[in-house]
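Summary for the steering committee. The consortium agreed at its last meeting that each partner would contribute one worked example illustrating the joint modelling workflow. Our contribution is presented below. We chose a case with several input lines so that the handling of multiple components could be demonstrated. No manual editing was applied between input and output; the record is shown as generated.
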Amino acid sequence: MSRPPIPIRARIGGRAGLVAQILLLGAVVLLLAWLARNAAANIAARGLASGYDFLGRSAGFDISQHLIAYAPEDTYWRVFLVGAVNTLLVSVLGIVSATALGVLVGVMRVSRNWIARTVATVYVEVVRNIPLPIQILVWYSLMLIAPPPRAALKLGDHIALSNRGLYLPWPQPSTQWLYTLAWIAVSVAAGAVLERWLDRQSRISGVARSFWPGWMLTIIGTAFALTVADNPESWSFPRFHGFDFEGGLVLAPALVALWAALTFYTAGFIGEVVRGGIVAVAPGQGEAARSLGLSDGQALRLVILPQAFRVIVPPLASQYLNLVKNSSLAVIIGYPDLVATFGGTVLNQTGQAIECLSLVMAFYLAVSLTISVLMNAWNARTAAWSAR
Amino acid sequence: MSAAMRPPPRRTALQWARTNLFATPLDAGLTVILSLGAAWLAWSLIDWAVLQATFTGESRSACKGSGACWALVTARWPQLFTGFYPEGHRWRVAAATLLLLMAAAPFAMRHAKAWTYLLAPAGIVLAFMVMGGAHVLPGVPSEYWGGVFLNLLIGVTGAIFALPIGVLLALGRRSNLPIVKALSVGFIEIVRGVPLITLLFMASVMLPLFMPTGVTLSRLMRALVVITLFEAAYMAEGVRGGLQATPDGQREAAKALGLGPVRTTLLVVLPQALRIAIPALVNSFIGLFKDTTLVFVIGLLEVTGVARQALADYAWQGKDVEAFAFIAAVFWVVCFAMSRFAAALERAPKVKPVQEPA
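What follows is the complete predicted structure of the assembly.
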């Protein structure tokens, strides 16, 4: 169903179109030139430096959280990397938790159960209609009035929450982890191979197969590996000592607040995306699957979900992108993300606004581009599947 | 009589509960757990916000008990809504609010007369004049404007000036002319690809660099320029959806009637496309209105900025949760109402039925 090709004359809009376009381009170029001239004059008048040479200079300030090694003597370029990693950290954490909660909310929205439906609807209407900056500030204020470490809220033996942050167990570097990881990798591979083999057998024989065996193998194998690894040698657990907790991993209050706000806010939107995807599958599809003798689970897995996924993935990708962009609100509560470090402190120190902000924007554009390229590839693959 | 023709049997409350609450044992368990959880949450919230709460006081020392302390909100009530506008002149804020709402009203209606749209920019200019003084009333510089009013001002102004730009961008994006198309796509994708906060920083630190020497814009104006362009990129996508949904036959019919491309677009395609796009545009406005709570980062005293300033005061230290919960409630009421409204528009018939002459 391809459109007839547009004749070349229409494409450039005839002579009038060509002239209009050249005029428009000229106007845009003139505008940019005028802005550049103003900027050059202003920069010279204020005695500001220009160019990206400052990236090699030492930053001289500390950053409270860094996943990659950082010291105040490091360069501004290093600050950019630390900020970018912090942005990606909170984005990945948020995407994982918001997806989990969002899928739950979306499924509850179409549940047969009235209470489940209502709770999910109220949730969605509340989180979507309150500005995210306000939600971040509320979560941050709640973190600050949380009990002090000695009265920390405990979840089980190894997780605690206080006004200094969220304390989690963290793996200790040890050779035992190599065995654990290898064991997990083998379980995943064995599960995948078994699944594929069962799939092939069922396609050849035409006999329906059960869903579980392969993935059960993976789950049991992984659980076994983690149980064996659950000992004080391989994990560092947070322990209260003196005035604060020691050991384990501490997530600063700003990170916890930002993570919570991004999760609860985005989950409301993802819930609607998931609901939309499920509703979009024609009810006849499920009924037809049932009348062909598929079980409820098989109908869901083989007929409804694959079709729902096609509808869900594009808007889901754009929600992920929104989450990454929204993580820049970190600056209002002082989480050192890219905008707060590079667009904030570095910009103030160097005064090179154009250079700093252009780098920050380039980072977000690169992330946007990556997500949309991945999404297009995914779309092409699903289109190929459905054509098969 | 076949089963389909028989009227459905009347369902009792018990039957309803059977299918909707206790269909299976799993369902019954879910119902019990969720209702207990929801009831506990609702009760704790009411207990904290109303039953155990303190409502008035001059500082945080007036706060008693374990509940919320709304004294900050009641003590700073006028500032939260009007900022630091001079006390005797608050009627001007009320008048400007009215003007803004009147300017925005036609955009929310499906069948408003065309000339009412043209009055919108006039309404906004008038609102700015009432607020600023315009040499008739005592002058009040924009540094003193604030509170929820400033959120409304930025939201409505940004949206109304963004709409024509958004329409042009959407038409440009669908144009056959390669340069027009490339410029439109480039602008839309770049603006939509970066967070608003980076654009606001741009407004605050970069825009002054790009102005000719000697020209300075107020903080508010700089924010408005950037927010209008930001919103235009988002509205362009809404309008594009409307353009795509307009049947091709309409364009062809207009061409067959002898209309040129300009008149086809203005008289036939755009009126239909915009009508289809209204729910998307209202939703985009809700997004913009929520985003206005962010402009405090560049020093504008909208409601979050007012609250943060109050919280920096020793008298109110530590009452953050109440202050932000109040703002959340205000925004929730406004945004929820608007989203219901957009949903109702989406369900309404798309085109006004033609009245047959009697």
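Chain A is about 70% helix and 5% strand. The beta strands of chain A are 153-155, 159-162, 165-168, 170-171, 235-236, 239-241, 244-246, 249-251.
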